[in-house]
Amino acid sequence: MTIKQFPSGAFRSFKARFCIRRGLQKKAVNDIVAYSPLVQWAAVHLILLISIMLQLKTCSTDFSNAFAQSDMKGESVYISPPPMIGGFSRDKVLKLNKSLYGQADVPRMWYDNLRASLEARGFTACKVDPYLFISKK
After folding, report:
1. Contact, 91 vs 8, CB < 8 A?
2. Of these four, 18, 23, 62, 73, which has the most CB atoms within 10 Å of its CB?
3. How far is CA 111 from the centre of its chain?
């Protein structure tokens, strides 16, 4: 847990991230399920160069807490309540509706969520680099 402060140094809030301990997760039957493509920086450089030469519009974005925003579609993950959260007995478990940091398959779930959202807006994933999305608009 960290303490967030205002620029003046005054207390603002506490910041904590609830994570799953990866070493305690059951191994997936098929490890390819957890695969998520990574952006190829050579492809990004090439697209930027082509965009400059053809005077095309480019944009990028950054997602805060990206992994904690993926829906748990079709998967049921249960965790024991953390000790710092009261009101739960030891024989109870919590079902996750959203993913948590540390889950082995979160990168894949995030990519699937991102891809579906961008494809619904008319973007197409590049065949050479699936993390590069292109729109003809």
Report:
1. no
2. 18
3. 7
**Buried-state track 96-109, b at ≥16 Cβ within 10 A, e below 16:** eeebbebbebbbbb
Token pair recorded at residue 35: 């695969």
The residues, ordered by sequence, that sit 6+ positions from 14 with a Cβ below 8 Å of its Cβ are 1, 2, 3, 4
At 88, list the tokens.
């739960």
Task: Supply 92's token pair.
Answer: 């109870």
What's this model's pTM, rounded to 2 decimal places?
A: 0.61
Averaged pLDDT, 30-41: 64
Task: List phi, psi (to 5°) of 117.
Answer: -65, -45
Q: Residue 86: which residues within 8 A CB-CB, separation 6 or more? A: none
Res 36 pLDDT > 70: no
Reduce the DSSP state of residue 23 to 3 states and report it: helix
What six digits make up the tokens of 118? 């961008």
